[in-house]
Amino acid sequence: MTDPQYSRRGLLRWSGAAGLGAAGLALLPPGAARADAPDVASTAAVTDAAVTAAGATAAGQSAGTVLATEFDPIRPPAVPLAVRSPYLSTWLPADNPAGTWPTFWTGRTTAMTGIAEIDGVPFLFLGAPNISGHVLRGTALRRLTTTATKSRFLFEASGVELTLTFHSPVEPADLRRQSVPLSYVTADVRSTDGGSHQVRLYFDISGEWVHADSGTPIRWSQEQVADSGTALTALSFTPDTPRVLAENGDMATWGSIVWSATNRSGLTWQIGADTAVRPAALNDGRLGNSSDSDQPRPIDDNWPVFAFHFDLGSVGRSTESAVLSVGHVREPALSYLGTQLPPLWKSSWSSWQQMAAFFHADAAAAGRRGDALDRRIREEATAVGGERYAALCAIALRQAYAGTELVSRDGQPWAFLKEISSDGNVSTIDVTYPAMPAFAYTDPEYLGLLLAPMLDYAEHGGWPKTFAEHDLGSSYPNASGHNDGNEEDMPIEESANILIMSAAYAARTSGAKARTFAAAHYPILKQWADYLVDNTLDPGFQNQTDDFTGFIGHSANLALKGIIAVGAAGQLAALAGRTADADHYRAVSRDYISQWVGLAQDASGDHLKLAYDQPGTWSLKYNGYPDALLGLGLVPKQVAAQEAAWYLTQVNQYGVPLDVRHSYTKGDWEMWTAAWLRDHPVSGYLVDALYAFAHTSPSRVPFTDWYDTVTDHQSGFQARPVIGGVFALLSLGQAR
Fold this sequence. Notes:
The protein is an alpha+beta fold. The chain has 18 helices and 30 strands. The protein has a ten-stranded mixed beta sheet with strand order 1-8-9-10-11-22-17-14-13-20. A seven-stranded mixed beta sheet has the order 7-6-5-12-21-18-19. A three-stranded antiparallel beta sheet has the order 2-3-4. A hairpin with a 2-residue loop joins strand 2 (79-85) and strand 3 (88-92). The longest helix has 25 residues, at 511-535. The two termini are 42 Å apart. This is DUF5127 domain-containing protein.
C-alpha cells in the first residue's frame, strides 16, 4: 500500500520523533538528527519501489541497480536495540541506522556510533557522528530482520557484508539469566565478492546513556575482566554524584553503564572526547588503550565517548566477529516500603564484573536459545493468527519484558513493573493487566513474581481500603505504597484485574503451586471478590484503566470485567479448598452475566452499549478476553457474535476505535478483542489493522498502544509494557 504523499521524491527530512512515511524508508540526510551529524558522501533513500542513484553509488553499485531494503516480517515503528529493563531501553527511532542517533524511549539521544573501514575507506553504519577531516560513505541496508529477541541489520559495502545484531535476551524459566541487565551487540563480517578485504570496525557510546541531564558530571574507568572462561575489556561510567533511588527524565540518576567487548586479536579501546577518539581510530587504524584523565566532567563537556576498535585483518568468505554488550547496573534496584532491595542478579554474582564475564561466555548459547524462542513464537503465532500476527509478536516481546525487572526480597525473587510513558507508577495493576498475555504465554512463573509484591502490600503493607490498590508507589523506583489511601482509585478495575491475573497464573503453574498460591492469598482474594459481588453488576461513577477517557458510571465493559473476575474467584476458591465459596462465586457470575446482557444491550438489538444509561453508544468489549483465557464460558456465544459483527461496521483504515466518542484506539485492547472473537472475521481484521499501523505510521517511536485509527498517528504513550497484550491470541490454550 502506497500513500501518495510518500511517493519517491529523493532524500526526505523529518524532525523530532517522527520517522518515515507510510510506505517507504528514507535514510536521513546530513544534519537531520543532531548538530554533530555526519558528513556522509551519499545516502540511500529507499522507497517501496526504488532507491536514488546516489544511494546506489554510495554502496558501490551502478546507478541503475535497484537496492531495495527488505523488512522481515515488518518495518518496526522503532527498532529495539538494547531493550532490557526500565533503564536500559535504547531504540533506533527510524529504520535508517546511518545518520540517526539511537535514543532512550523518551527520545533523548543515547548515542552509539558504528563505522566499518573497508580497505581503508570508512563507511558509516550506525549513528550520526561528525568527524573532522573525514568523509564517511554510506552503507546499503539490505535487510532488517526483527524477531522477538533480536534486531538484525544486514549491510553491504565494497564487497563486504556486515550483519549487526542487537540481542536483548528473554529467558523463560531461567531467573538467573533473566535478571542480567545487559544486552548483546554482535557484528559479523564476511566477503561477498570472492576477494579478501582489510576490515576494521569502530564502536562507541556516549555519556548520555547514564543520565538524562547532559550537564551532569560523570566519571569512568576501564578494566580487564577474566572469569567464566572468558576475558573482556570493560568500560564503565557513572554519575559523579549519584542520587540513589531517583530519576531524571525517566532515567536513573544512580548506577553505571557497562560497555564491554570480548577480547580478541586486534581489539583496542579508548575513553576521551569524541573529537579526539573518533579521528584517532580512522587516522591510526587503532585506539590508544588510554583513558582521558580529565574527569569527572559533564557529559556535554567535550562529549566523552567510550570506544572499541576491532582490527579484523583480512576477511574472506569465513566470518569474523566482534562481540560487545551494554547494560545498566545499579544497587539497590528499588525500595519497597522503605527497604532497599538488591537486583536479583546479586544472588548469583558478587559483582557486575563477574556477571558481565558470564554474559559474554554465554553469548553463543544465548544466541541459540534466543533463536529457538524466536522460532517458537513465530511458528505458533503464525498458526493461530497468521504471518502479520507473528510480526506483531516479534516487535512486542522485548518491550513487554523491558518494563519489568527482578529483585531479591529476603532472598526470594520478586518482579516489579514500571508504568512507562504515563504516570511512572510502580507495579501499576491496570498496566500489568494488559501486559499479562506476554507473561502468561512465555513464562507463567514470571507473572506470579509480578503478582507477589502486589499481594504482599495488600496483605502486610498497610493498604487501608477494602478494594485493591492501583499501584505500589507513585514514582518508580520507590514502592512506598499509599497507606494514607491517597492514590488513583480504580476500585472495580483493580480488584477485578488482580483476581483475573491470579486465576490465570494459577491455571498455568503446577497443580501443587496453584493450590498453595490460592490458599496462601485466599483471605485478600476473597475480600476483593466480595467487593465485586457487592459493586460490579452496575458500576458506580468510577475511574478505570482507560483513564484518559475520564470517569464513567454504569460502564458495560467495566461490569463485564468484574463479573468475569467473580468467576475467576470461583476458580481460586476451588483451588484453596473452599467449595462453598467456589459454588457461590460461580453462581453469582452466571446470574450477573445474564442480567448484564440485558442491561448492556442497545435498543437497536445489534450491539452492546458503552454504558447502561447511554443508548446508541458502543465500545470495544475487550474484557471478554479473560472469559476465554480462563475458560469460564460466561459470555453467551450469540452476544460475542453480535459484537463481532457490529465492530466490522465500525472499522477505520487502521483499526476499530476504542469507543464511539473518539477515533483513537488501544492496540493492546484490539488484540484482546481479537483473541476473544478469534472465531469471527473481525479477529483477522484487527490483526491486519494493527499491523498496518505499526508498519506504516509516520510516528516512528517505540511501539505505541494508543493511536488514531484514521490518521495513522500516535495519540500518546510509547514503549509501554502493555504492548504485551499482543500475545493474547497466543496465550489461549496455555493452561494446564
